[in-house]
Every structure is written in C-alpha cells, then in structure tokens.
Design goal:
Radius of gyration: 20 Å
CATH topology: Glycosyltransferase
Helix content: 40-55%
Order of helices and strands: HEHHEEHHEHHEEEEHHEEHHEEH
Number of domains: 1
CATH architecture: Alpha/alpha barrel
Strand content: 5-15%
Distance between the termini: 14 Å
Pfam family, one: GlcNAc_2-epim
Largest sheet: 3 strands, antiparallel
Keywords: Isomerase
Number of helices: 12
EC number: 5.1.3.11
InterPro entries: 6-hairpin_glycosidase_sf, 6hp_glycosidase-like_sf, AGE/CE
Family: Belongs to the N-acylglucosamine 2-epimerase family.
Strand order of the largest sheet: 1-2-3
Structural class: mainly alpha
Length: about 400
C-alpha cells in the first residue's frame, strides 16, 4: 500500500463529502429557522416527517457545526447553526430540576424525559466546542458547570431512576465511556481537575469491570464488581460501542504523548471488538453478539446500522497513528470500502441509517430521534484531521 496516496485520497474524500453532501443536507432540510434548533425526522429526500425534536441532537448538531467551524473552515453559517441549537436548548430543553428532556415539540414544549444524562453530555460538548469557535469563554464555563451537574446526578442516590429494580445491581458501559469523550471535549476549551479525574476513573472502570479476557470482549453491562451477569442482557456485546470506546482511549493516549499502557488497552479493545463485530460473510460491523454465542435477544441483532461503521473508520485510523502498523490501514480499507458501497444515497444525498445484514436498505429515512447529523459528520471531520496529521 502507498500510505501517502491512500491517506491523501481519503482526506480529500472526507472533506469533499462533508462540505458538499452531509452538511448541506442538514443545513437545508434540518434547520428550524422559525423556532431555532434542528429537526432530524427527515425522509430520504429531506422532507420533514415529524416535527418532534430530539434533545440529543440539539446538542449533537450544536457540537458538529462548531467542530466543523474549528476543523474544516470558518463558515459563519455553521457557527450560527451551532448557536441556534444551543440557544434552543437553553431556552426550552432544561426542566425545572436542572435536568434535560429527551424530546420536545418544534416550539420547545416538553414531551418526554428519560433516566439518562446523555442529553446533558451532548449539550456540554456543544457549548465547549462553541466556546472554541466563537471565543466566548462563558460557554466553556457553562459546559463545565453542566458536566459537574451530570456527575452530581450520577453520584446522588435517588436522583436518577435506576434501570432495574434493586434485585439486579449492575454497571453500564455506555455512561462510563461517554464521560471520557465528554470530559475530553470540554477540556479542549477549559481546564479543571475534575475532567482529568473523570477520564481516569472511566478508563479504570472499563479496564477493571467491563473488559473480560475470558471472552476477549468488552461487555455492555456487568455486576457491581465486574462479574458476568449470565442472562441475555448481561451477555451482550455491542461491537460499535466497544470500538467507539477504543478510539476514545486511543485519543486520550495521544493526549498523553502516546501513553503505552493506554495504546495497548485501546488496541486490545479494538481487536477484540472487530473480531466479534466484523461480519465475515457479508461484511460490515454487526449490531449485537452474545459472549457465549447464544442467540441475541434484540430484534436488530444482525442488522448493520450507520454508526458502528463510522466508529470503526475512526478507530482504525487512530490505531494506525498510534502504532504505524499497516494492518490497521487494511482494516480501515475493509470497513471503508464496505461502508461507502452500501450507506451513501447517491440520488438524494446523505446516508441511509438502517441496513439488513446483507447490506440492503431496511428503511430509507435519513433521520429520526436517534439518527441525525452526528456520527457521520463526526467521522468525516475526525478522519480528515487524522489523515492530515498522519501525513
């Protein structure tokens, strides 16, 4: 492989696709110019199917638009879109108790609130990235304050409804891993010891509780001491989440001047998760596996969703940057070739989100409450910058 040509080609492709395809689609069809914020429930051609607004995506697109401004080009329309999402969140998406909603109407009336603090995590990274883009430090301070509130909510018994009744005491991987990225993004805009402390605690928890060498797997849910919960839910491997965790850890290793221990940890998680996730028959990263190889309970277990593929593209580039081992570029080529052969909609733009196992389209909508302008543009921005850094 000619590494220079390969990376130059992909860098140009990521930037071109982001600037001329993904971002124009969401700027044209997603932005709510009347009420502020962004819609995500869009049909294949961009038509609005549902005016319900995902609070996750007010933060997610608020982040992406500012991240693009910082990393791709200083487009004032992108900065304005980020501010629109943040303003909408601040005005409409916080409940009286300080926690955030999950869904609101297009005008911002609350529809639904969930036990998770993911809305708050996405709001925080939007504010911190906007602070970097705009130069307004008050948004970095807001992000840090919100992060501290997240930690208080997680640490205070009774504030968040538990997922299970007291019969089952468990730890979840999702919140553990997302706090690494949330703290990391805020740290780029403002310093505070609590950010590094949380990153260290999350990484230690992943190593101690969720990594299970006996299965060569990172599990989604474990007992309080990291023990296997030998049920359908307890045996779940989510390869996409695990691969995302791998690149969060490799990114932190890079921040620490390529800390060898963290590089080894990130690479191990990537390789374990690739082995579980890569579909050797059809290609692509599969949704769920069972660590004992029992049938998986989730109905979408053998589907190919958009976001695990994008996480694998980023992770393999990080792995190559960390090690200079071309086998990770071979993995990058594998996942990239499969992803770009199946997900982009060549007629209407953007990407499909939901494919059957064989790569055929399961449904053609470009967005809903969970899919929107986040994983795909984040992959393109982050992968573009990684290719340029490596070159």
């Amino acid at each position: 492989m000619n590494v220079t040509d390969y990376l130059q080609t992909w860098a140009a492709s990521y930037k071109e696709d982001f600037v001329n395809n993904i971002m124009p689609f969401w700027m044209r069809y997603g932005l709510d110019h009347k009420n502020g914020g962004v819609y995500t429930c869009l049909d294949r051609d961009g038509r609005l199917m549902d005016t319900t607004k995902s609070v996750w995506f007010q933060g997610r697109f608020g982040f992406i638009a500012a991240y693009a401004y910082n990393q791709i080009e200083q487009n004032p329309d992108w900065l304005a879109a980020s501010r629109s999402c943040i303003d909408f969140m601040e005005k409409h998406c916080f409940d009286k108790d300080g926690r955030m909603f999950f869904e609101v109407t297009e005008e911002g009336l609350p529809l639904r609130k969930r036990r998770y603090v993911f809305s708050e995590c996405f709001a925080a990274i939007a504010m911190s990235e906007y602070a970097l883009a705009s130069g307004d430090r008050t948004y970095a301070e807001k992000a840090l304050d919100l992060f501290k509130r997240i930690l208080r909510n997680l640490a205070t018994p009774g504030l968040l409804e538990p997922k299970y009744l007291p019969t089952l005491q468990a730890r979840g991987h999702s919140i553990t891993m997302i706090l690494i990225n949330t703290a990391s993004r805020i740290r780029a805009a403002i310093s505070d010891p609590i950010l590094d402390t949380q990153i260290n605690e999350s990484i230690a928890a992943i190593r101690r509780y969720f990594m299970h060498p006996e299965f060569k797997a990172l599990l989604e849910m474990v007992g309080l001491d990291g023990e296997l919960i030998d049920t359908c839910n307890g045996r779940v491997i989510n390869p996409g989440h695990c691969i995302e965790t791998a690149w969060f850890i490799l990114e932190e290793a890079k921040h620490r001047h390529w800390d060898k221990d963290l590089v080894q940890m990130g690479i191990r998680i990537l390789e374990w998760s690739w082995e579980w996730g890569w579909d050797k028959e059809y290609g692509g990263i599969i949704n769920f596996r069972d660590c004992r190889n029992f049938p998986v309970q989730d109905y979408s277990q053998d589907m190919k969703f958009w976001w695990p593929q994008t996480e694998a593209i980023i992770a393999t580039l990080y792995a190559y940057q960390a090690t200079c081992d071309e086998k990770y570029l071979d993995m990058h080529r594998q996942i990239s070739d499969w992803t770009y052969a199946h997900f982009p909609d060549k007629e209407y733009g953007e990407w499909y989100g939901y494919l059957h196992r064989d790569g055929t389209v399961a449904q053609p909508a470009k967005g809903n409450i969970f899919k929107g302008p986040f994983h795909i543009p984040r992959m393109m921005i982050r992968s573009y910058t990684l290719c340029k850094e490596i070159l």
